[in-house]
Design brief:
This protein is of the alpha/beta class. The chain has 15 helices and 17 strands. An eight-stranded mixed β-sheet has the order 7-8-10-9-13-17-14-15, sandwiched between helices. It has a six-stranded mixed β-sheet with strand order 1-6-5-2-4-3, sandwiched between helices. Helix 3 packs across helix 4, helix 5 runs antiparallel to helix 9 and helix 9 packs across helix 15. It binds ligand BES, manganese (II) ion and zinc ion.
């Protein structure tokens, strides 16, 4: 659900109903406007009883607080008020939304002792609330009752702060980013019977509403472009593939675009090299890379970023049927390089091979960053806490890593090298699509690298982070939207 919360900003005033959220810095310090919401002074004792000291994103609550008209008072700690980072404010916002429980009317009193939160911080707090409020429940028809801990279907949030106009302005940007993250989560969570390649392409097309240009290539057009690697994957499905190109031209006409490329396997059965049944349902999320690309393009267009950006996604379904490709088949990619398909389950790299080549060829971008739920091996290496980063360009890798640190979408750089590259040589073709168990994520990356020439490029293996990552203050959803805030930040910091 994308429109659960509406957020408004206002001056400080005594709240009259619903849930009221206050902030406290470490040591339990409240601002004057916050203190006014506790006329009978019930909080001091509550802090003591709950041993609440104001640590970041910790909270306490008081029901029906004496001397007020509202139902619930929650206090969220901000830690050391002067040193809260951007992601700290997101977490505070997430905790605030949780603290409001099922109220449909929520007032946040963004006031602290000493200097209150800046407009930017207030906007990030509200962004944290939006991200936390998301839940994928559109298919729950019978069990939607609002438990105490579930946000109401419609929540009206009023954030009281020192400069509501400035907060509103900063929030416009935060809202654009939230829209991108939530769109990516929705796409990942949606089951594959509903979201096939054609339907996914239609979702990408909707970005035209934000002023982006969107072109959808059909199978026929991809055949003409000789995308034999991508088409080989698609041929086992009755649902035809699509390739979507999203262009956002917010920069100067002469500026080379930045490019984001995404793996969009709407469902990955493994093909003829079929996967085991256990957990296969998770493969509805094998388009997490493409979802992040659509999400970041949404964010850039919605906030009118001053950059020229390309989002390119390859949408296919990897199925076993009478027309599916076989192990041993040799396909010719758009680049002309031939590939022996050893394992039809190593399909993501086949899709990306043609996408990367085409993107580079057609748009000559400043850089290409591709995102893909590419290998199970990256989870063995990094778990759910970092995405794997592979790059031919140290400066780009550095920028991505630091963007990920500031948005807490962490990346860990992995090696590339000639020794690994050799492992994908094939005796029957130019290369093979699988080199076996060892260094599985690296050999996958080496494969992609053969399709990028000299262009600065990075590959983010998001198999462990795009879906099924642990619940956090700002995400309770299986599909996480990983990468959207990170790439938006990369662009904001270096390319506009
Ligand atoms: N989509 C999978 C990778 C994956 C696994 C993503 C689990 C998310 C969760 C990918 O297409 C795949 O099947 N990779 C194989 C490659 C192997 C056959 C070389 C893998 O990781 O086992
Ligand atoms: Mn696969
Ligand atoms: Zn896959």
């Amino acid at each position: 659900m994308t429109d659960r919360l509406t957020v408004a900003f206002a001056k400080f005033a005594m709240p009259k109903k619903g849930s009221v959220i206050l902030l406290a810095s470490e040591g339990g310090g409240l601002g004057a406007h916050a203190k006014a919401c506790d006329p009978d002074g019930v909080l001091a004792r509550a802090f003591e009883v709950a041993r609440f000291s104001g640590k970041l994103a910790k909270s306490i609550e008081v029901l029906a607080p004496a001397g007020t008209e509202f139902d619930r008072l929650a206090v969220i700690g901000v830690g050391n008020a002067g040193a809260v980072e951007e992601t700290g404010w997101l977490k505070i916002g997430g905790a605030a939304l949780a603290g409001a429980k099922s109220a449909s009317d929520v007032t946040v009193v963004a006031d602290l002792d000493g200097a209150g939160p800046a407009a930017e911080d207030v906007a990030n707090l509200a962004l944290g609330m939006l991200l936390r409020a998301y839940s994928f429940d559109k298919y729950k028809t019978t069990s939607r009752e609002n438990g105490e801990d579930k946000p109401a279907d419609k929540v009206k949030v009023t954030v009281q702060c020192a400069d509501p106009a400035a907060a509103k302005k900063a929030f416009a940007r935060a809202e654009a980013i939230a829209g991108g993250v939530i769109l990516a989560r929705d796409l990942v969570n949606e089951p594959a019977n509903v979201l096939g390649p054609v339907e996914f392409a239609a979702k990408a097309k909707e970005l035209e509403k934000l002023g982006a240009k969107v072109e959808i290539l059909t199978e026929k057009e991809m055949k003409k472009l000789k995308m034999g690697a991508l088409l080989g994957v698609a041929q086992g499905s009755v649902r035809p593939p699509r390739l979507a190109i999203i262009e956002w031209n917010g920069g100067k006409a002469k500026d080379k675009p930045v490019a984001f490329v995404g793996k969009g396997v709407v469902f990955d059965t493994g093909g003829i090299s079929i996967k085991p049944a256990g957990g296969m349902e998770d493969m509805k999320g094998d388009m997490g890379g493409a979802a992040a690309v659509v999400g970041v393009m949404h964010a850039l267009a919605a906030r009118k970023a001053k950059v020229n950006a390309i989002g390119m996604i390859g949408l296919v379904e990897n199925m076993p049927d009478g027309n599916a490709q076989r192990p041993g088949d040799i396909v010719t990619s758009m680049s002309g390089q031939t590939i022996e398909v050893i394992n039809t389950d190593a399909e993501g790299r086949l899709v990306l091979a043609d996408l990367l080549w085409y993107c580079n060829d057609r748009f000559a971008p400043q850089f290409m960053v591709n995102l893909a739920t590419l290998t199970g091996a990256i989870m063995v290496a990094l778990g759910h806490h970092h995405a794997g980063l592979f790059s031919n360009d140290d400066a780009l890798a550095e920028r991505l890593t630091s963007a990920g640190l500031s948005t807490e979408e962490k990346l860990w750089r992995m090696p590339l090298g000639a020794e690994y590259d050799k492992l994908i040589d094939s005796k029957n073709a130019d290369m093979k699509n699988s080199a076996g168990r060892l260094a599985g994520s690296i050999t996958a990356a080496q494969f992609l690298k053969r399709f990028v020439k000299e262009t600065p490029w990075a590959h983010l293996d998001v198999a462990g982070t795009a879906m099924g990552s642990p619940a956090s203050e700002i995400n309770r959803s299986w599909g996480s939207g990983f990468g959207v805030r990170l790439l938006d930040r990369l662009v904001a910091d270096h390319y506009e």
